[in-house]
Specification:
With 249 residues, the chain is of the alpha/beta class. Strands 1, 2, 3, 4, 5 and 6 form a 6-stranded mixed beta sheet that branches. Helix 3 packs across helix 7 and helix 4 packs antiparallel against helix 5. The chain is globular, with a radius of gyration of 19 Å.
Length: 249
């Protein structure tokens, strides 16, 4: 490639981007989706410095359309879920219902490990997707992420004041005031659920699955995971890079 490709992941809460060139994926930049589209676009590289744009969007905002319009002189690939693709088959009968972010994360996991995987992303929601040893997506789980659960309790319970996600050591599993009790309840509910789903997948496969965790709020959960895991930041962008590299091999 003569010039780098721009990869943009428009998530529910944040948009992220990175450049992909012959040396691999570059540094990742982030911006909150509450920013005006013009403010987001002005942070992106200039069109003249790029060869192509890859765009993945789960956001219902106008940001993806604004980005497409801004780079309209460049080839733009709007990534969509494909089934099957590169050995990964999906459980969903209607693939339009599966978020492209989950698909890209699973695709990266399958291409890298070629075995059963539990792919977890912890952000606005916690999503869990199971892949068996044959590359078949068995299905998934979606539950509110830690901040969304905290916000819900804060809005509906007057006595609770929750400002930030707080981690707990194993020694402090039991909260000693109402706020700590709520935070412990949320964090351990999510971590315990994740590990139960891992054990369920392990019981269905010959190999011990790979547990792959990503997402902006993963750090709140990781201290409570007692299973070996791989933390893969920005897994969606890595999945996008895998597609771009194969497109232009």
């Amino acid at each position: 490639m003569s010039k780098p490709y721009l990869l943009v992941d428009c998530g529910n809460s944040r948009s992220k981007w990175a450049l992909l060139d012959s040396t691999g994926l570059g540094a990742v930049s982030y911006v909150d989706n509450s920013a005006a589209p013009d403010q987001i676009i002005e942070k992106l590289p200039s069109a003249e410095s790029l060869d192509k744009v890859y765009l993945a969007a789960v956001s219902s905002s106008q940001i993806p359309n604004q980005i497409s319009s801004h780079f309209n002189r460049l080839p733009i690939s709007l990534l969509r879920v494909k089934n099957p693709y590169l050995g990964l088959g999906l459980a969903y009968k209607s693939i339009d219902q599966l978020g492209v972010d989950r698909w890209l994360a699973m695709l990266w996991a399958w291409l890298n490990y070629q075995q059963s995987c539990l792919v977890v992303n912890i952000g606005t929601a916690m999503t869990i997707d199971a892949i068996n040893d044959a590359g078949e997506h068995l299905g998934g789980v979606i539950t509110p992420g830690p901040r969304l659960q905290f916000q819900s309790l804060h809005q509906h319970t007057h006595a609770i004041d929750l400002q930030t996600v707080k981690t707990f050591s194993k020694q402090n599993r039991w909260g000693k005031n109402t706020t700590d009790c709520v935070q412990a309840g949320v964090l351990y509910a999510l971590s315990d659920s994740l590990q139960q789903h891992f054990h369920a997948l392990a019981s269905q496969n010959k190999q011990t699955p790979k547990l792959i965790i990503s997402g902006g709020d993963a750090a709140a959960i990781l201290p409570h995971i007692e299973i070996d895991y791989v933390q893969q930041p920005d897994i969606v962008l890595h999945g996008m890079a895998a597609i771009a590299e194969r497109d232009h091999a």
